[in-house]
Design goal:
The protein is an alpha/beta fold. It has seven helices and four strands; from the N terminus they run αβαβαβαβααα. The protein has a four-stranded parallel β-sheet, with helices on both faces. Helix 3 crosses helix 4.
Length: about 240
Amino acid sequence: MARLSEMSYKQARSFEEVLLPIGSIEQHGLHLPLGTDSLIAEMVCDELASRKQMVVCPTLALGFSGEHANFPGTVDLGIDVFLALVERTLDCLGRWFKSIYIVNFHGGNSSALEALLKEMLRPNVTLIHFWRAMHDTMLAMTDQRELGMEHAGEFETSLMLFAKPSLVLEAVDKGPETSISIKGGRAYLKGWRSEELTSVGSFGGAQFASAEKGRAFFEASILKLAEIIDEIQAGSSKGNL
């Protein structure tokens, strides 16, 4: 793997493209660690960078997580500090790399990052939303269909069982109490806090997860992200923000 943090500036100079993973430190139910989004971001982007011969920037592990702020351990930067951190990081990377691919692994960061990119107007910066990119693929692979993609549910728990099994506690949640989609989907949006929707913090059913599924999900994730980057490099995709 080619980690920016583990190479000299001479080695860094030999790369033209860089991945910038962004995650969060926020509650993921009773069974997953607070850093789940950031841990998944790191492992996926490490492998993706290796296959695509890119360098990967250290994961921005702190994000915009106000919806989970009332659960212990959640670190919410707030929108202004979060965007200032991302913008400054992009400014630095932009001095040395021809192309920057932000890969966002926390849904709560999404709208803020989109607004920032529209304001910055940098043609060499592309934002990839991991969850949107993987939606159709995961829909076909999870036992729970849409519910399998929920917060701390089948998909995330499977990835963690595959990559970091020692960090997964007993899957104590009994399944989805409700769906996070209650907040409105594409047609409308209301402010919400996760404790209003679930008593344990998770939305999906972790009991459907397994390490075997996690391995399959991981490989599918790498293939899909590599496909998207190939489209961007070929100039065949302008995105849809």
